[in-house]
Specification:
Blueprint lengths: L3 H11 L6 H7 L18 H22 L5 H11 L2 H11 L9 H5 L6 H19 L1 H17 L10 H13 L4 E8 L6 E8 L2 E8 L2 H15 L4 H4 L1
Antiparallel strand pairs: 1-2, 2-3
Helix pairs in contact: 2-7, 3-4, 3-7, 3-8, 5-7, 7-8, 9-10
Amino acid sequence: MLSDKKICEFEKKINYTFLDKSLLTKALIHRSYGNEHRDFKNINNEKLELLGDAVLDLIITEYIYIKFSNATEGELAKLKAMIVSEPLLAEVSTEIGIGSYMFLSKGEELTGGRERNSILGDVFEALLGGIYLDSGFENAKEFVLKYFVDRIVHIDENLDLVDYKTILQEFTQKEYKKIPKYIVLEELGPDHNKQFKVGVKVKNSIVGEGLGRNKKSAEQMAARNACGRLEVKLHETL
C-alpha cells in the first residue's frame, strides 16, 4: 500500500488532505490488482467510480446551467457530454499525475495501463467519489472546478472534443439552407508523411481552410476556421 510519505506527496499534488486515508487508497486500486493479490480480490475502486461519476455529473451540470443561463436543454446536454468525457478526464488525471500512484496488475502495467484513457478517467471519478464521502459535496465541487473551469472556458479550442463539422453544418442549414462541402485543395509532403489541405465551401465560397495529417482532421480544422470566420463559436451559441 501507499506509504505515509507517498500519501502525503499525493495529497499535496491534489491540494486535499483525506480524513479517511483508506478512501484514498481504495480510489487508486484497479480491479486487475486483485487478480495478483488475494487480499484485494474484492477490493477495488469501481463503487467509488460509480459514485464519483454521479457527483461529477451534478457538479458540471450545475456549473454550466448557471454559466450558460440562456442555453437550451439540448445545448447544455451537448456541452456536458464534451466535458464529462473520457479524454478530458484522462487529461486531468495526467495533469495531476494519478497514473504513477495507481495499483495495477503487472499485465495492465506492461500493456500501458498507467497511460490508458479509460483507466485514468475511471480513477479520477473514483478519487472524486472518495473526496465526496470523506468531506461532502462542497469540497468535491471545489476539487472538480479547480481543474475544469478553465477547460470549460476554452473547450472550443479542443478539436478532440468539439465536432466543428456538425456545428458548422447546423449553422449553415439554419442560416442558408445549405450543407457545407469539403474539398481537398492540396496534398503536401511525401507519401509516408503526407498532409492534406482542405477547404470548406458554403454557398460556393471557401469560408475556411485546414491542414491535417488526414482528411478527417483537416476537415475539422477547416470547419473550426469557418466557424471563426462566420462568428459561430460554441460559447456564443450557448
